[in-house]
Write a structure and sequence with these properties.
about 350 residues, mainly alpha, 4-stranded mixed β-sheet, 17 helices
């Protein structure tokens, strides 16, 4: 008989639900010995640069001189901003700068950024130790200059080999009145706030600096890869709540925890685990309002496969305390990880 995830038991005792919700609201803690990074003893590895403020400090009546000074101050970043981010042609550079500097809507957006983020010290208090942990775990990888820049809502983050660009206009809160103009899905919109920015930043930098290898193309391999990404975020942002690390809401995290066994049974009964058919298993890993796969209820959390992968990786690292985070990321044998995790949902 085929097991259907849609047949999950949905009723739970009130006290148990309240207890689980309380646990999820707490910041995630990594008590593993490999998290013994003494960040206070590590010098800062990332420098903050406020390109956005310097850009909007330019005066239209003095644009040529001010733009020359801006280029001199940002000799490496400005060409990246002009060409790769904004896509400005050289002959239209001054005109485009003037358009931004004179657009009242753009100036209002930048005023909101300044009011909401201030000097960005609150965010740097999270990002600085996160990049120290990154440098500790991946000593051969670069750490970036963090550059704040207005990008006309083109990107949530931007990177090159030495720079992490954070467009703060993308993190003004889901109720910001400009966002409806872009038809952004609600499940994405709710993460466009300052609380989710550190997770976006650390995810983007991992994508820029490390390519996590996949030896095979099965659902299990992609599930484990997603689990590694979540474990990485937990390692570099150990004091951040799981709901901010993962992108799931507290209710979705509760649903995932309550249905962990049923999900695993579902993968096996529906022949997902070792499937090579990406079109078949990708809905289990894709973002959305819920997991849009056959026999998965619309009340589910999205990316159920990623959650299962996360639990497997956590168990694997608990069973192998001598392993480093870097060794985990480059271990390509998903069958080994699953076996040694002794995962029992």
């Amino acid at each position: 008989m085929v097991y259907m995830l849609a047949k999950l038991v949905k009723k739970q005792q009130f006290l148990l639900c309240a207890f689980l919700a309380a646990l999820i609201l707490l910041p995630s803690c990594n008590t593993d010995s490999r998290d013994g990074v003494k960040v206070d003893e590590i010098p800062s590895v990332s420098e903050l640069k406020r390109f956005d403020k310097d850009f909007f400090a330019m005066k239209p009546e003095n644009i040529e001189a001010d733009l020359a000074a801006l280029k001199k101050k940002y000799p490496e970043f400005y060409p990246f901003y002009q060409i790769d981010i904004m896509g400005w042609k050289q002959e239209e550079e001054i005109k485009n700068c003037l358009l931004l500097l004179s657009d009242t809507n753009v100036l209002k957006i930048q005023d909101t950024v300044n009011q909401l983020f201030g000097d960005f010290s609150e965010e740097m208090a999270i990002l600085d130790p996160a990049f120290k942990r990154f440098a500790y775990h991946f000593p051969e990888s670069a750490t970036p200059s963090i550059i704040l820049a207005y990008t006309e809502f083109l990107f949530r983050t931007g990177t090159d080999s030495a720079m992490l660009v954070l467009p703060l206009e993308m993190y003004l809160g889901e109720n910001y009145p400009v966002y409806p103009n872009f038809n952004i899905p609600s499940y994405v919109l709710r993460r466009m706030n300052k609380a989710h920015l550190p997770t976006a930043a650390m995810s983007a930098w991992l994508d820029e600096t490390l390519e996590i290898p996949i030896a095979k193309n099965r659902f299990l391999d992609h599930m484990i890869r997603e689990g590694k990404l979540l474990y990485y975020l937990q390692s570099v942002l150990p004091e951040t709540a799981d709901s901010l690390l993962t992108g799931w809401t507290t209710d979705q995290l509760s649903w995932l925890k309550e249905n962990e066994f049923q999900m695993w049974t579902f993968y096996i009964s529906e022949n997902y685990l070792y499937s090579l058919d990406g079109a078949y298993y990708m809905p289990l890993l894709s973002d959305g309002p819920f997991t849009a796969a056959p026999n998965v209820p619309p009340g589910s959390a999205p990316r159920i496969g990623a959650y299962s992968g996360w639990q497997i990786v956590k168990r694997y690292m608990e069973e192998n305390p001598e392993l480093t985070l870097q060794e985990l990321m480059f271990e390509t044998d998903s069958d080994k990880i699953l076996k040694e995790s002794q995962y029992r949902p």
